[in-house]
Amino acid sequence: MTAGTKKVSLLTGLTCMTLLWANAQTIKGIVSDKDGQLPGATVLSPATRQGTSTDLNGAFTLNTQTTGKVKIIISYIGHDTRELELDIKKGVHDAGIVLLQPSGQLGEVLVKGTMAPSQMKALSIKKNATAIMDVIAADAIGKLPDRNAAEAVQRVQGVAVARYHGEADAATVRGTPFAWTSILFNGSRLPSANVMGSRNSVLDAVPSEMIQYVQVAKAITPDMEGDAIGGSINFITRTSPAKRQLGVSAAGGYNTFSKDGTYNGSIVYGDRFFRDKLGVMVAAAIWNRQWGTDAFEVAYNTALPDPMQQKSISTAMLKRYMGQRQTYGANIGLDYTFNPANKIYFRGLMDKFNDIRPVYESYVDYNNKQYQYNYRYSYYQTVLNGAELGGEHQLSSKIKMDWAVSDYYTKYFLETPPTNGNKGLPIATFKQKITGGFSNLAADGRRYWAFDAPDKTTGGMPLAFEPGIANPAETMDASKLTLQQLVIAQLDTKEEDKTVQVNFRINAGRKVSLKAGLKYRHKDRSGMFGSSIVYMAGAAMGIPQSPALVPLGQLERTDFPMRGGFFTGMQGNHDALAINPITKQQLFNLFDTAALRANGFMNVTPKTNPTNIYDGTEDVAAGYVMAEIAATDQLKITAGIRNEYTMFALHGSKATVSGTPATTNITPVSVSNNYNALLPMLHLKYSLNSQASLRAAYTRTFVRPNFADLTPGESIDNTKNPIAITKGNINLKPTFADNIDLMGEYFFHNIGLLSGGVFYKKIKDVIFSNRINYQEGNNNYVLTQARNISDAWLLGFEGGINKRFDFLPGVLSGLGVEANYTFINSEVKPTGTYTTSLPNQSKHLFNSIVFYERKGVMVRLAGNYRGASVESINTQLGPDFFTWTDQNFTIDASASVSITPSLRVFVELNNLTNEPLRVYMGDKRRVTSYEWYGRRGQAGLRWDIIK
């Protein structure tokens, strides 16, 4: 081909593309049924063979190269397919609201069922999604007894949750550490005020009523946040409806442990004004509950040099919580449609979680031969506020732009007010000597469980725990328990993310769509954890002429909250350890300056406290480009690349302890670093027919190091031999993963799904806390610091079914089942001597729901199983000292009956089997924590006043 011919060909090609661009028209509209917008509906133009699907608000944008009469076909699960003939002119054509009608036998289900519409939405979104994902819709969340965002997502295939005192508070995807799952709000990373400096977001502050959809992406696309090795969980808040709606709910309940009541209520209002241009959605919820927990906790002598004695018991504690939790939430959604091509929106969110925990702790201290009794009044508070302003604009028939700016803020703090003005968590510690010693010690003078004891006979078993006091008459006694220490534990962590982003979608041809975008996030973070104000009684420290120690019995006290008994989950009677505590006000009064002086208390606050405080910034600049290609009628290819550049700076303090007597020198220190993450991704979707498809994906993802590991805080203790150094590591590299996913999906005609797949992750530079001994000059050192010390892999498969048995006769046709199972195996080598699974990774995850829905009656019985998972890895001592959370299986239930088309009564029950939470060290019998928290339930009304 000559140069001239090439020029003519190029000119011809450009001319054709220009004509196609100029002739392309845009059809916009909203697909709905009588109950509201339909997300995931398929919209197709047969003449041009171009198609699209509706977004989460039921809106669609379809390009066509012709004017005049154009036919489009709209289809949706459970509805009759509808054909429209539109008279298209140049520019943007507004098709308005397209109403679909329920089809055939499913029409009866949709009218009278309670879960079918919600499942229909979720399956439609999943079916048309580019990413490999699962979806939950708001209706489904509200019909199971899941009261916060973490509990709502626990039913999803491949998702595991962590439970704290009976309530789920964090979630992870596919068995990865919790910080490896990206938690998103409306597509942007949710800031984290995690107390331990982790990037994991705690979700117990978010009421489930605030959520419209939950998208769990297992294989992400380039337009999603890239720090998601496990996957991402995107919580989408409520937006305005197509028509007016108003609904309220109210319920009251009971907790079998606290023997007290609970209540919750919610209101959801949505409407449209100014000829449907302005949409408004307001939602608010409150959940107030009394709760309680018995926790049997055991600490071991892991710091001793003798390997056998490292498994001996240091302390055994019976701890009771008896408190109150309050969750408040409100969100607002506004949108204004100027014309079919231009729309702006606003979302606002305000959540507050109060966790009020009076705590009663009775210790048996075997090392120091004493009883110890602590009373603390904990008042933890979590705040999550945020707002987002954005817009969607059809710039031309080929180009669509959307943009958003957001500001989300979260804070986790303690603010109990002791009278001297220091805020935090006040703790009073009383001690009593056990003069007669113990009767169940081994020959080496230490306490073991029987299976660990050198002679294999002494010590008993954990749930048959007996203190083993040699003199049975030497019980814990308020007249002998003396006040020896007062502590104010301080905690204040906050994080704020300000984000701006813009995305462009370009229709580059009949079979090619391009998308590109930029995002910038500025994070401000500050943390204070591990700092304490400490006062010790002079007499307890042996200081001459100090005032006598104050007995517990001489202080103002109140009754111990026995309620239904004390540690009834264990064998034996432990009531002797249930001591009447001081009152809350008495606790506060002990911290008064005059009281401290009168009782002979001295301030012994650690001089190294400043090393536990830091602040700093993190800036992330991200960009992506991707193409969606319809290679054939069956094969769709999504390919692209995302790049995220991270810059951060942290400021803290360094403490050096040296000399005799020891002195502490505090100096400020600042650190900074930056790194880049280049993330290529490829997705393939092959449609076998209208119901079945195969998906494959390769994605590269990453996670940033946790702030606790990066912190500039450093402590050097020159008084020890070897010299002890604890510090952060600013040179940590991100952890990267190459992920391969294969998935098959079959969608039943009657609103159901059969799916299965396999996944593999090759992970590089896993971060662990490491302990290193080294010599420099004439000195020996031991350095504790986080490092990139291992690679890992993870392999698993998952399968699930959602099936209605409407083929059964009569009343049995309302039966159905949802079940999913995930198997996960992983391997990481934190040292050169042993391997283990990844932290938080359970080998088996299982969900099952048996349901019945017919003629306004709904009954659901749900089981959730999470296998054992390693939680902390002791790189120094090895697998016998790893901490594990044991397998956990909970059963929940719910039922509702429609009294009228708008009013229904419901019942919700949680933890029917009273499943405890078990944590152990190395061996399941070597308990570190055993928690019982009882059952809870509620009954109430839901009234759709306007729908």
UniProtKB/TrEMBL annotation:
Ranges for domain TonB-dependent receptor plug: 127-231
Ranges for domain TonB-dependent receptor-like beta-barrel: 492-912
Key words of the record: Cell outer membrane, Membrane, Receptor, Signal, TonB box
Leader sequence segment: 1-24
Location within or outside the cell: Cell outer membrane
The keyword Flavoprotein is annotated on this UniProt entry: no
UniProt cross-references to InterPro entries, sorted A to Z: Beta-barrel_TonB, Beta-barrel_TonB_sf, CarboxyPept-like_regulatory, Plug_dom, Plug_dom_sf, TonB_rcpt_bac
Single GO cellular component term: cell outer membrane
PANTHER family reported in the protein's UniProt record: PLUG DOMAIN-CONTAINING PROTEIN, TONB-DEPENDENT RECEPTOR-LIKE BETA-BARREL DOMAIN-CONTAINING PROTEIN
Family recorded in the similarity comment: Belongs to the TonB-dependent receptor family.
NCBIfam families: TonB-Xanth-Caul
Name recorded for this polypeptide: TonB-dependent receptor
Gene source species: Chitinophaga fulva
